[in-house]
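Chapter summary example: a protein plus magnesium ion.
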Amino acid sequence: MAKTLAVAADLWRGFQRGRDIVSAVQGCSFRIDAGETIAIVGPSGCGKTTLLNLIAGLDRPSSGQIEWPGLGPPDTLRPERIGVVFQSSNLMPALTALENVELPILLCNGADAEARALAMLAAFGVENLAGKLPEQLSGGQAERIAVARAVSTNPQLIVADEPTGQLDQAGAALLVDRLLAWGRQSGSAIVIATHDERVAAKMSRVWRMRHGKFENIGTRSKCTSPG
Ligand SMILES: Nc1ncnc2c1ncn2[C@@H]1O[C@H](COP(=O)(O)OP(=O)(O)OP(=O)(O)O)[C@@H](O)[C@H]1O
Ligand SMILES: [Mg+2]
């Protein structure tokens, strides 16, 4: 049986807006096992980024529970066990593409950081951009480097927020195919928020969200237990 990486029960996340509370995530329960590939889809504002931040341990729920039984204590999750691709790439502006990918490896005290970072850039077809600063990159190039950075520590779970939003159709397909190939080889789970149904169709499950709730959390292709 596959290792359970994250499990959540009745997650809620509310944000104060003036006198009101915006409930961005409302009562979501789920499980993410090793090797699963999951797309989170739904209209803008439905709560995808909020949910991904909870899954990555970057944010805490207002109520409900999330645990990472297969990944260890919450303070050791990143960057070693969970790799994150932010909606806006979020590369460090003063560092080159290569240094951006090297950084999480160095934070984990990894050996051969530069060689490993170069290999990651090559795996995503952007080794020619190694010496560029983020301001010299197109949005799509930055997205590919952000994905290479997220996988550079060999995490067991990748959480990627619209990682192909600035790529054309062919570029998006190629990046997701490369990420899925990396996931198959490492046995890691991949969760992607996307507006692109072609990207979602490549994943083994699709979670559909609306107004912070799951409309449907797909069926596991290899497992039929709920959640
Ligand atoms: N830090 C915050 N403070 C206040 N409201 C927030 C905050 N983050 C998100 N929200 C609100 O929560 C809701 C869900 O936002 P979220 O960013 O999760 O949506 P999304 O599905 O990722 O949208 P998009 O597809 O545009 O990226 C929205 O109504 C948003 O305005
Ligand atoms: Mg979002």
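Key point: The chain has one domain: 4-216.
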